[in-house]
Design goal:
InterPro entries: RNaseH_sf (IPR036397). By secondary structure, the chain is an alpha+beta fold. It is built from 6 helices and 5 strands; from the N terminus they run αααααβαββββ.
Length: about 180
Amino acid sequence: MLTKTVVDNQRDWADKLLETLWAYRTSIRRSTQATPYSLVYGQEVVLPMEIKAISSKVASAMGKKIKPEDLDTLLADKLEVVDEIRDTTSQKQIKYKHTLVNNFNRNLRSRSFKEEDKVLKTALNLRQGKSAGKFAPTWEGPYLIKEVHNSAYYVLKTVGIGEDDEIINGYWLKPYFD
């Protein structure tokens, strides 16, 4: 967000930092459907131009007196609202996580191999999230599947050499065609 605000002149990023933090803290997050500010302080942000209705916070800042009875009712109402907001936020987070899981599972390809199938496995650098260079191979093999297990992992052996047993998840395998 900060990089978008200092596109023209990158030397004044310190001057734009407060504005950027304000925008970040007051923007609604997709997962919670609430702003980080409202989750921390239990209320929406009150802009200086919006101070028309006097709340307990604004009244104390302006030096106005509030009766203790009124303050108790204001705080009790605010606590009930904060609890409701937290409950709905947690429900929204759970719903958001379910949508993420469903989207992930929709794109997931199920691969099932049986013993003695020939497969290729993803190169080690890709499995570790590293780049080995532009011309590095992305697949290694071919390998034969020696054992199949229920939890989607396989024991591989190199074609021609039966001694190299390697355990690997089926996610990193693809079929090898002669």
